Amino acid sequence: MRKAALSLVALGLLLLLVAWYPRYVEKPAKDGAGPLSVYVDPSRPAPEYHSPLDWWQTHHMDVLNRGDLVQSDCLQCHDAKTSCNNCHSYVGANEIVP
Ligand code: HEC
Ligand code: HEC
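^ thats the input. predicted complex w/ heme C below
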């Protein structure tokens, strides 16, 4: 009787482990997979200053901090939630508050 109860507990723990096992989450990328995917309204063209994109990904903060552009310029095309903060929370940068 005791053995049966113990094996039930063990089975329960095993099921919890499977249910809570950490899942691999794709890093934020434009049109990537998973909850961190960066989404930009496809009807909007990318502005010229985004090119080359890999430069822009690592330097947009300089342009903003210098004041060449302001945050509200960005939010015309970007939704802060789905195309700034999903990446910012991943890299540990400050949250963009619209
Ligand atoms: C006219 C619309 C528009 C404006 C304004 C705009 N963006 Fe973008 N942005 C886009 C589009 C479209 C893409 C996707 C480009 C691509 O996939 O080639 C993009 C991509 C990005 C990316 C790269 C995302 C990734 O995962 O690679 C970052 C970062 C970004 N924008 C930041 C900004 C910032 C900061 C500003 C304001 C200074 C801004 N954007 C203004 C349309 C815009
Ligand atoms: C694909 C990833 C990604 C996306 C999308 C993204 N950023 Fe960033 N952002 C970064 C990284 C990386 C940093 C640098 C963090 C650091 O140096 O500590 C940064 C830094 C910044 C900073 C400087 C923050 C500070 O504390 O100095 C600003 C401002 C900024 N981003 C604005 C935006 C805006 C506005 C958007 C949306 C339009 C955006 N970012 C979208 C990756 C991203």
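The chain has four helices and no strands.
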